[in-house]
Amino acid sequence: MKIAKKASRAYARGLDAGPSSCSSSHIKWLIKRVVSDKIQNIPLRLLHTPTGLLCDRDAQISRFEGSRQYEQLLSLASSPDSDQLEAEINNVISEYFEFTMLSHRWGSGEPSLHDVEGRCVYDLDGTDGQVKLQMFCILALQHHFQWAWSDTCCIDKSSSAELQEAIGSMFTWYHQSSLTIVYLPDVFDVGSLVGSVWFTRGWTLQELLAPRAILFYMHDWSLYMKSSSTNHKTAPGLLNELHDATGMTKEHLTNFSPGMADARSRLHWASRRYTTRPEDIAYSLFGIFQVHLPTFYGESAQNALGRLLTEIISRSGDISVLDW
């Protein structure tokens, strides 16, 4: 993501100089290098669940440098084993920046970036969308994740460049997340998962396939199929329901790889879904096929799909996709 990389490069200035001979300077250099690498693969903006504040890249780094984890790493400066030291730094930083993603169907009163910027999300009131965001952040915190992302307020949609890059990065973000929380307001009891409108939406296809860990929550934010499982993708009974709802194999549901393999089947999955913006039916598949194409909001769905199909045929040689 260009914006993220720009911020990362700004943070990493001085890394080329390498560590000094001073052990404390050396460990600070190592920390800075690992953080710089880490933040390139996470969303540009994240909600800080303990405070409810939206944090951009600089704020994320600032919170880390003020954390007990950062102080803990600095205390390791006297460690004689450099390999063990670097491994510990990687582990602590990876754990610190773990984040949760929200998957949902948009409803009324969804808070935008403008609504939450500079405000605590827990202080918002009045709309269903705001309550949903609050419950999502609370759940993320209960699962011990201090960072959370929602497509409603963590993207500056007034910036065409940022929106383009978010669309190109979204599959990766869902895959890199430690947990994806799916909220299903139309599911009221166990056994009714298949009937949720969530399975008919275009963008939720990649939000089902990309995450490694996923949990479904019903209308009252209670866990679907209450169990000790921390990942519904490993729950056999729920996998059967997901198969019934999507027609996908369990291998695709649990271990999906983006790319051109079996392209016609992937297009067939999307043919059963719809999006509010017609052209999004193509854009929502960019991550699934691992393609990087420009988005032109306002173009017809036929044109957007035509560009996608041309790219798929060019890379895979599979002309059968024209009959999906």
Helix percentage? 40-55%
Structural class: alpha/beta
Give me the count of strands.
6
Query: How can the largest sheet be summarized?
Result: 6 strands, mixed
Calculate Rg over CA atoms.
21 Å
The assembly state of the depicted protein chains is single chain
Shape: globular
Put simply, the count of helices is 15
The proportion of strand residues reads 5-15%
- Major beta sheet, strand line-up: 2-1-4-3-5-6
Explain what this protein looks like in three dimensions.
The chain is an alpha/beta fold. 46% of the residues lie in helices and 7% in strands. It has 15 helices and six strands. Strands 2-1-4-3-5-6 form a six-stranded mixed sheet, sandwiched between helices. Strand 1 (46-48) and strand 2 form a beta hairpin. The longest helix is centred in the N-terminal third of the chain and has 17 residues, at 23-39. The two termini are 31 Å apart. Residues 14-22 have low confidence and may be disordered.
